[in-house]
Structures are given as C-alpha cells and as structure tokens.
Design goal:
This protein is mainly α. The protein has two domains: 98 residues, Rna Polymerase Sigma Factor, Chain: A (Orthogonal Bundle), CATH 1.10.1740.10; 71 residues, Orthogonal Bundle (Arc Repressor Mutant, subunit A), CATH 1.10.10. The protein is built from eight helices and no strands. α5 packs across α8. The longest helix is centred in the last third of the chain and has 25 residues.
C-alpha cells in the first residue's frame, strides 16, 4: 500500500526525516519546473527547489494535516520561497533572463508545434505581471485545481477563476500581438 503525501509528511513531522525521500521523489521535478517557469533560470530554480525542501524539513512542525492537502501546503511554501528570493534581490524583473537564452530540454512534438511556439509563449509569459504569471503556472503548467490555488493565495475560488480567466486573456493578447509583429 502506497502512503499518501499527508501520511508521509505526518511521519516527517514526527521526526522520521528519512521519509522525506518519498516526498522529494514525488515533487522535486514539479517544483523545479514551477520555479523555472517563474524565473526562467535553471540554476536559480535548482537553488529554490533545494531551499524549499530544506524549509520543509526545518518547518515541518508547522504542517497541519487538517488544513488541506500536502500539495497545497508545499506550493504555499514554494510561493514563499520565491517571494523571499525576489525580496532578497530587490527587483523581481531583474531576474528574468532573455527568453533567447532559455534552453528548453523538453522534446517538441514537431507535427503539432512550430519551432518558435514555446519561445513565443515564454516571451508572452514574461510580459505578464508576476501575479498573473504565477496563476497560469499553477493552474496550467502545474495542474493545480482552483480550490488548491485558492488556499495557496488565500482568496476565494470565484476570485481565482476570474483572475485566471483575465490572465489567460492577457496572455493570449500578448502572444498574438507578438506573432503579428513578425
């Protein structure tokens, strides 16, 4: 029987730190990709991922199983790690690299997507304000449900739906304006 994330985290909270390996295996790639979409920097994303798992161990005593899913809790911590990183660097936008230097390791499906589609999407994402970008990354790239995002951001589900709708509309407008200029 495979243990749930919540059960494993409860064991970690009780001092069984070796159980953290299971959570790391389940989440480190997803969280690295979350940070990568926010920063567009592989090294910074690796550091933020490492910092996040360090914080999980350090602040394990704050985990409460009755406050929702472990996934919601870990993404809230991930947001806090990213926010702290941005505050530490003073300006969020200084840390976004030019998309041309972004190396996408994912294989593209050449039959469906043209060569520059992912770069164009990344460029459009970078032009969104940080809150809109974060919402799109959480909902579309990380696959979190609106209820989970609502708990992470501490606002109502209807408000999340409206904000995501507006962010996607803004992203679409930016994306297609970029294509028109070419």
């Amino acid at each position: 029987m495979e243990l749930s994330d919540e059960m494993i985290m409860q064991r970690v909270k009780e001092g069984k730190l070796s159980e953290m390996t299971w959570l790391f295996e389940r989440y480190h790639v997803k969280l690295y990709n979350f940070f990568l979409k926010l920063t567009f920097d592989k090294i910074i994303s690796q550091d933020l991922t490492q910092n996040l798992f360090y914080r999980i161990i350090k602040y394990r005593h704050t985990y409460k199983n009755d406050n929702g899913s472990f996934r919601t809790w870990i993404y809230q911590l991930a947001r806090n790690v990213h926010i702290d990183f941005c505050k530490q660097e003073r300006k969020l936008t200084d840390h976004f690299k030019n998309v041309a230097s972004y190396n996408n390791d994912c294989e593209e499906n050449k039959e469906i997507y043209e060569e520059g589609d992912f770069e164009n999407l990344d460029r459009a994402l970078m032009k969104l304000n940080p809150d809109q970008r974060e919402l799109i990354i959480l909902s579309r790239f990380q696959g979190l449900k609106y209820e989970e995002i609502s708990k992470i951001k501490e606002i109502s589900v209807p408000a999340i739906k409206v904000q995501i709708h507006r962010a996607i509309k803004q992203l679409k407008d930016i994306y297609f304006k970029q294509l028109e200029r070419k």
